[in-house]
């Protein structure tokens, strides 16, 4: 009896030990990944293709037999770009689906709200679909970002045009939200390095449809370069309005408007618009090799063009896969983050951007690119931008 | 069906109609209190969110359901509550137990200010005025610089009540349940006082109310004060649930969601606010849980949630304007008087002549 009791306690202790060693979201035959994104709200143009790109890579990996014998499972939740919904989504992903990691979740306020929960549950936040600084700062073993942050994008943009041609009266047209604020901050910081100041700043709300007053202010200030610290629709409106009013400075923006809808707006009116981006948007026509295969496979699968966000989604899952392969059969959060920190030579399969992490560096993409609209299409004008 | 004899006027203002009703609600309370014992953290958090929304819903119910003033700006007061609480606790170091009532007061005063200005407005004009309050509040919070943290927002300090850290789901759940129960009792109590009756009189006919000696402007403002105070408390608790407040959280969408909540739940009843909160908070959860069984082509397409949400709303507005609670009452009545149920039983008997001139 005594022996039996001892054996029982031992068995119980072993069982407890096993369950403790078991990492959330990792079982013998699968690894569960979670993402919350916007599938039906104002940023569905970002969320829907992103989700499709992620799914496509997951399906490819599973068709190849998974990672070390484990299949990947991706659970997607819709937030409609609302923080309360994001909280609910994260709650479900963390506690019901028990995800191993959160990958490519969309939206700055949503990610900021969910982050403490992730940290508490010891679940890594991987490559959120936002370039906010807080996605890496303060440094945490669980936080990894793909993008260079908004301020860095605008600092690099300022530096590039300062060194290539120069400017006298730099101006900023800023959207009234947190993204706009941090983008504009980048311009201010870099100008300070050159001992310059922003000559004029205008602010507009996301819902504004008439940009005449903003553009008139910029025109009267005699701006020769305008940094568009904004989103998609307002960028189009400001450029189109400026063309109409005969105002023709250099327009530079960040990664957010990097999509076909912007390049193609106004039948060629967007030609000459520059943007600085941490990733490269690859078109079928200009793609080569592996990258062309991926873009074509996507088009065959979903019968639509592979949007830049879909390309990012694909890359995010591919990076997770690369790190998981390094980890080997025994998957834990510590081993996984160590593998990510050791990832120094990843080249994204679509745009060819170099990605490297380190123990002190949790921000992936190394240098930025400069894209330009030509003939209603985005083309890469320069690579390797930095400040 | 039980028929109660009225033996005294006190009977009309009792909290519960009879012992059976008291036992039912006691049972519900016991069930809610024991939830941490048999529900896991995920469901507790969801339920806590239901309670918070129900508090905001009760506030809106006082305003729209009882005093008849439609508000498209309720999220503004939720936002003021969330920010006031975060700033009071985070910047001025006020303890939770002091910060929460102070927050209710701040939000309530903001509400009263809006209410006083709007007290002569009705219908569409009031809707537009409150809508603008929602928009202006969002812009003000965004442009508030360091004080409100701008568009970037503020991190919310951890909830500690009298030295106890509320760091587990079941703890925050119980806090929210307590506030929710308190809010229901307050509302219930309001309805059996002079001010509650005055609010309903104002709703049904302002002219008649004034003729009976009700100070219409005062009670309309009072309704705004109470409603905003409830919203403020809900905002404070939401801030704790979100860990982070940004102006975008409390935009127009949220105002409309709150209004839908009371309409779907059933306008003019306490139950309606609670039913509506369950509907608004749990529908997305239920949808994402049943998505697992749906074919991928439907489940993974964007806008699925919005479609179902919209469809349900449409069905309610077309077929059951009395909301979830109205439907429940009818079903309940059907069985209790079976087979004597008649549709007419729920038609309003008294209608007041309403013209623009005589409001």
Give short descriptive properties of this protein.
heterodimer; A: 387 residues; alpha/beta; Rossmann fold; 2 domains; 7-stranded mixed β-sheet; 5-stranded parallel β-sheet; 12 helices; 14 strands; globular; B: 359 residues; mainly alpha; two-stranded antiparallel ribbon; 15 helices; 4 strands; disordered C terminus; LivM-like (chain B); membrane (chain B); transmembrane (chain B); cell membrane (chain B)
Provide a descriptive summary of the structure in words:
The complex is a heterodimer of chains A (387) and B (359). By secondary structure, chain A is α/β, with parallel strands linked by helices. Chain A has 2 domains: 30-147 and 287-356, Response regulator (Rossmann fold); 150-277 and 370-385, Rossmann fold (3-Layer(aba) Sandwich). Helices cover 43% and strands 17% of the residues of chain A. Chain A has helices spanning 2-21, 44-63, 83-95, 108-120, 150-163, 178-193, 212-220, 232-244, 260-263, 289-302, 308-327, 333-341, and strands spanning 30-37, 71-78, 101-103, 125-126, 143-144, 170-175, 200-204, 225-229, 250-253, 274-277, 346-347, 354-355, 368-374, 377-385. In chain A, the strands form 3 sheets. Chain A has a 7-stranded mixed β-sheet with strand order 7-6-8-9-10-13-14, sandwiched between helices. A 5-stranded parallel β-sheet of chain A has the order 2-1-3-4-5, sandwiched between helices. In chain A, α2 packs parallel to α11 (308-327) and α5 packs parallel to α6. With 359 residues, chain B is mainly α. Chain B has a domain at 32-250. Helices cover 69% and strands 2% of the residues of chain B. Chain B has 15 helices and 4 strands. Chain B is globular, with a radius of gyration of 21 Å. Chain B starts with 18 loop residues before the first helix and ends in a 23-residue tail after the last helix. The chains are: A alpha/beta (387), B mainly alpha (359). Chain A binds chain B through residues 39-40, 44, 47-48, 51, 55, 76-78, 80, 82-85, 87-89, 91-92, 95-96, 109, 112-113, 115-117, 176-182, 205, and chain B through 40-42, 45-46, 49, 139, 142-143, 150-153, 238, 241-244, 246, 248-249, 253-254, 281, 284-285, 288-289, 300-306.
